[in-house]
Amino acid sequence: MRSHCYAGPVPRKVDIDAQRADLAGAVLRLAARSGLEAVSLREVAAEAGVSMGRVQHYFRTKEEMLLHGVRLAMRRIDARIGERLQCLPDEASPEQILRAAIDELLGDHPETNQVIRASVAYYARAQVNAEVFEVLFGDDDELRGLAALVVRTAQADGRADTGLDPAQEGYIIWSLADSLGVKVAFGQTTSERARATMHYHLDRVLGCGAHPGV
Amino acid sequence: MRSHCYAGPVPRKVDIDAQRADLAGAVLRLAARSGLEAVSLREVAAEAGVSMGRVQHYFRTKEEMLLHGVRLAMRRIDARIGERLQCLPDEASPEQILRAAIDELLGDHPETNQVIRASVAYYARAQVNAEVFEVLFGDDDELRGLAALVVRTAQADGRADTGLDPAQEGYIIWSLADSLGVKVAFGQTTSERARATMHYHLDRVLGCGAHPGV
DNA sequence: TCGTTGGCAATGCGATCGCATCGTAAAAGC
DNA sequence: GCTTTTACGATGCGATCGCATTGCCAACGA
Fold first, then answer.
1. Which has more confidence, B91 or B162?
2. Using one digit for the tens of pLDDT, what is the confidence trace for A89-130?
3. Helices assigned H by DSSP within chain B
4. I need a labelling partner for A158 at 20 to 30 A (CA). Which of A32, A36, B67, B200 fits?
5. Residue A9 domain-assigned?
6. If interface means Cβ-Cβ distance under 8 Å, which residues of chain B face chain A?
7. Number of domains in chain B
8. Residue A120: which of B120, B140, B179 has the nearest Cβ?
9. For position B169, what pLDDT does the model report?
């Protein structure tokens, strides 16, 4: 059914990566819905609508299955942010990129929420499994770097206060986006509230609107 | 052994609350170490060094045991913050209270870390169990209120920019403290780094140090 | 055409799960 | 002193766990 037509370089067998991604998607749904406790081989098979033997065929151990799950989660948010960035005009400024990425995190879209909740469910594993830790937290540096760059640019443009520490401000911006994203995903606050707070902060730090430069 | 001497108003039986708190402590240790997946009746009994029958005697169901666990977690942080506040001089300012509370959250003390990690482990349950949700997130409003009060006070004192929105700034302060506390507890950053960022932010918003008022 | 391989489904294993039940020893009340 | 209640420890139940094994079937190479 799924491989009745194909154009890949390996036509003789099914698309292994696609199968694994399908199962990893089921892992994410379960993890987001009720935590990693609910993720068993049988539950994943049932969620994906396949047999348990299939799950075992594509993942040698449960640990490997969970690792593919968290990797898919990160690919999903990257993809969603990437899609949003393609809606921006070419050569968009770093600030536009930053605001677009944060808007996606706080957007309260079901898939974004699912990925965030699933990620949080993996936090405990990150303490035990170094690979999970790396997948979950490894990309933080570049995000902070982007935010710091935006602050520096705003300073160079004379919009932001030159007394600001770009590194600290970048760290604050992403920590804030992180915290608000989790709050939205877990229903502690609304998307509108979170976005309003985030925009308020960015506007103040980056000096948008009626704000006299130094 | 445990009730050879007592002074309570009910001398005829053991201290039920103390027993439950002892078991709930074992729940927290397990949850903080490897998530709620690792919390089973048998594991809790083993962690507490008692029989499984004892655990069942004090908690009718696993759900009830978990609920006592998260309640103990919240009482623990409240107690730790309370202890820290007692080290402050009498009639300490709201700002001193705020800074002390945040310092405790970012202090990287083992017990604080344990409580934070355990709390995060409960996030998934909060979506299913309304009681857990309330225990975990119910106190957010008053914390935000304290932070907002501090901002308003700083504005009244002429230290903080009167253009600031106290409610938004209070929300930002606590979201930031929340995020940084989790990062410290899960080893994403160091206590020193988090505290430096938090103090940097508070000093800027509240206008401490060499900062000209409006 | 035939043997080999990949892609599964099915089944079974020992361990562990939450929970219920039973037994018992000590204390409390009459 | 005798009954009742409290505070457990011990054991067992059916379900589920991760994982290993087995078997079948379609697709491919020779």
1. B162
2. 888 899 999 999 999 999 999 999 999 999 999 999 999 999
3. 16-34, 41-48, 52-58, 62-86, 94-105, 110-121, 123-128, 130-137, 140-156, 166-185, 191-206
4. B200
5. no
6. 31, 33-37, 117, 120-121, 123-128, 133, 137, 140, 164-165, 168, 171-172, 175-176, 178-180, 182-183, 186-188, 196-197, 200-201, 204
7. 1
8. B120
9. 98
